[in-house]
Amino acid sequence: MYNFIFYNYHCGRLMNAYQILMKNGVYVAVNLMEETASTEISTLSKQGFNIHSDVIEATTKELALDIFKANISPSTKRVEFSIKSALLFKTNGLQRLPYLGYSVLCFVLVIVALFVLFAGIDSLAEGFLVLLAVVSFFILTWFGLSLSVARWKNCGNKGWYYAIALIITLVLDTLLMGVAGFVLWLYLLFNPQDSSIENT
């Protein structure tokens, strides 16, 4: 499996090859030269550790970790998801499964609001329902947008880049009949959390 690894010497000392794995800000270096490397990586993966780097050559595990930490991008503080933080575009903590759930709920509520809005209502009481549906529609649209921005930021992108992506998507969808928007939604749904975001 690791036949691409080789030995070399630096200042007369034997260099080993290390694979770095990470879970919740904890880093582990696995010596790929050891016979148990594959088993160790497999065990750590089952415990939730993710491979987090290219192979690093060093003389010790401690040095490998030091080299890795000196070269990785600075971590980004995770802002936990809440309805308030989402509506204010302040969260980057919305991961895939919650995003799916909130998106489906928001979509269903928007359909209900639109149904009430265009149902052809005459009475005063039903007119109030129309007003409520209009207000609900705009609130839900804002919430849906905030969900997408939160998930976009969780993928490691800058929030304002989503405005550019959204504009391009809307332009493309004038020709593609919603295909571009669906592709953007799939990206948000399946792209994992960026590794630079700290887990809490």
Average residue pLDDT? 82
Number of helices: 7
Proportion in β-strands:
5-15%
**Alpha-carbon Rg, integer:** 24 Å
The beta-strand count equals: 6
- Overall geometric form: elongated
Return the domain count: 2
Can you give the helix content as a percent range? 40-55%
Main sheet: strands, sense, barrel:
4 strands, antiparallel
Tell me the span between the first and last alpha carbons. Answer: 33 Å
Poorly predicted runs: 1-12
Main attributes?
200 residues; alpha+beta; 2 domains; two-stranded antiparallel sheet; 12% strand; elongated
Give an overview of the whole structure:
Keywords: Membrane, Transmembrane, Transmembrane helix. It holds the Pfam family DUF805. It comes from Photobacterium pectinilyticum. The chain is α+β, with helices and mostly antiparallel strands and 200 residues long. It has two domains: 9-71, no CATH class; 83-190, no CATH class. Helices cover 54% and strands 12% of the residues. It has seven helices and six strands; from the N terminus they run ββββαββαααααα. The protein has helices at 37-46, 61-71, 83-87, 96-117, 124-154, 161-176, 179-190, and strands at 9-10, 13-14, 16-23, 26-31, 50-51, 56-58. The strands form two sheets. Strands 3, 4, 5 and 6 form a four-stranded antiparallel β-sheet that branches. The protein has a two-stranded antiparallel ribbon with strand order 1-2. A hairpin with a 2-residue loop joins strand 1 (9-10) and strand 2 (13-14). Helix 6 crosses helix 7. The protein is elongated and about 80 Å long. The model is unreliable at 1-12 (pLDDT under 50).
